[in-house]
User: Fold this.
Amino acid sequence: MKKIERNIFNSFNIYYRYYKKTGLYSFVISNLIKIFLVLVFVFILAFVINKFIIKLSELPEYLVDNFSTPIVLLSFFISESILGLIPPDFFILWVSEFDNFYLMVGVLGFVSYLGGLAAYGIGVSIRQIPSIKQRVLKFYSTHVDKIKKWGSLFIIIAALFPLPYAVACTVAGAMKFPLKNLVFIGVFRIIRFFIYAPIVIQIL
Assistant:
């Protein structure tokens, strides 16, 4: 039993030192700081909009009344598949008007999850064209480096933090990152929506 505990401790220590050496912990801390700064900016922006432009509490109703649910979800899926063009929290604001709010938050999370898989598929397609693959991997060399160093952990961080998740998935596909791993860890993308939803609602 002691031998097993010693082996577990040694393995943990090895991983701890490796991730510390490669900068994982400082990367996570920097992203936590980014989240804080983004929240401060959003609260200030929300205050200004609420004060001088439009009541934010009226915005979700306007969005629901003027845009059909399938069209919005399709737009969200496309955004989550291609570079994450629209901030996902905007869509949380949209579903806040629905009676079944948390069900719709789950729907958004699942659509984002599927968008990540679609982005991975785009990466696989890019991999088939060497010239484009080389350009993409060079352009996103930072992501390539982090996936090589941290593997699934980087994808999880991209799923939870304000990082371009679609880009991370596309690069993963271009790098032959195992699809089965992405299918599993992509669940963190759904969890992200349930974490952020109460925060976004507080802004209203």
Notes: Residues 3 and 9 are 10 Å apart (CA to CA). The two ends are 54 Å apart (CA to CA). Residues 55-203 form one domain.
